[in-house]
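re: ur msg from earlier - yeah i can do the magnesium ion complex, just paste it... oh wait u already did. ok heres what im feeding in:
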Amino acid sequence: MKSQKQTEKNTLTGIAVSPGIAIGRVFVWDSEEYTISKQIIPQKQIAIEIARFEEALIRTRTEILDIQKKISKEMGIEHAEIFDAHLLVLEDRMLIEEVINEIKREKVNVEHAFIVILKKYSDIFSKMDDEYLRERLIDIQDVGKRIIRNLLGKQREGLMELDEKVIVVATNLSPSDTALMHKEKVIAFATDMGGRTSHTAILARSLEIPAVVGLKNLMQTVKNGDIIIIDGTSGIVIINPNSAVIRKYQRERKKFLDFEKGLSKLKRLPAVTKDGKSVVVCANIEFPEELSSVIDHGAQGIGLYRTEYMYLNREDLPNEEDHFQAYKKVADCMKDGHVVIRTMDLGGDKFVSHLDIPTEMNPLMGRRAIRFCLAQPEIFKTQLRGILRASVYGNLKIMYPMISGLTELRQANEILDEVKQELKRKHIPFNPDIEVGIMIEVPSAAVIADILAKEVSFFSIGTNDLIQYALAVDRINEKIAYLYQPSHPAVLRLIKSIIEVGHAAGLWVGMCGEMAAEPVFTLLLLGMGLDEFSASAVAVPEIKKVIRSVDFSKAKEIADKALKLHSSEAILKYAKENLKELVLDYKNKD
Ligand code: PEP
Ligand code: MG
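and the outut:
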């Protein structure tokens, strides 16, 4: 992780979040915050404004029909049907008449008139009791944005609609924007905002797209069509490089791909230390589509399935069958290993605008994850039914996110029991002994791990959140990224204690936060007794390599010594020295 500084005029350094090198053309992904000013127009311009409005409606309709065609071809007709609702908004005579009347009555420019009416509609729809009508708000807002863009003559190509390979540059990207990226079209991305454990960064690793975030002023520096190099391993971004630099990075790219190929030899080998201690190395996934990469990289199971992605980029809620089919697919594919299905963790940086997740001052500490599920038990039950039904097809486990105390855990388990009873009554098969575990990612859960341990089968340490809450450092904020320190002595003590308490209660303890994916910490975590490492599939071979290079007894010694050091810097330095000394391939690395 590196801080941002300008080393040369055309070189920026940000936070390296997804390894690999890409060289290509910039595609600026614009933020959609247009400023619209109110202009009073003369009488004779009214007809012109109305004509502009009609033109924008026609252009928007053509755009939507084009997208529909494209999506129908690439993803199937059912995905394309989502846009029918958008077309209906465009044909809504009442909305159109109201905009025209506003222009005539107030003698204002069409952009302003449209914004006024759009706001009126949004206010009415957001207060509707009928859920279906409330959900139409998202269609109105989406189409509204398109119309405004067309009125202003702006272009915003969708990330799904790209025709050529590009490198996306943006101020920020949401996890849902990132989920829409096609690997064949988006060869890398770079953003001004963001941190290493933001979900956008995590997704880049899952999609194997090189990425650098936290660049602070890249957007000011580039324009569409510039040539750019993204080094997602070192965090360097070079704008309009000369041919010598391009050649250098082409060589680096080849070296990176060769290194990756070398690691792939490890994929069938077990994660066992030189003195015979076995641990498990699993993969984290967001979508069942990642399964082939999981198998290719030799993961022994799924340690974290982030199921909330099923709720993103769609306009309705996934139903029981959607859940069942997705989990069955993963269970069928991972016959030899377990699959830890984390119940949805919406909120934080993963929003679904049609669900009742209000805008909060501190969304990362708001009504997210299990808190949301307990407040909306019907939505939670739908997911639990899907998981339970799929549990007969493989070794599925349930994991609750963001547990902060015993009451929450008990409430979640009560709901799970209700769902089990219901399935039993209906004679629907499921595994009655399905293991239930929790993420330990809130400091309070770490402190009372002994109490929670009595009522669960396993712990999985979510360092991404645990670090942000323990150190009070927002994981997405690039301005304080330097304080986001997995090697902080407080973090190591928390991890050590969670593992010890879990083991004392007879539980296995895994880690599915990004710290488990960083080779520099592998020896420490191994030495502290971690049973399972779960990381993005790409990280799996390297973690195995480190584990296979050492004796467990030596790793224990290293962990004990690291726990006695007093600062993040000292611990990090010590961890790096040991990695270099003990693991071939790291000797000459930074
Ligand atoms: C974590 O917090 O470490 C974790 C794995 O969950 P997420 O990154 O999805 O919050
Ligand atoms: Mg988390």
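cool cool. Residues 43-152 form a domain with the Enzyme I; Chain A, domain 2 fold (CATH 1.10.274.10). ping me if u need the other ligands too
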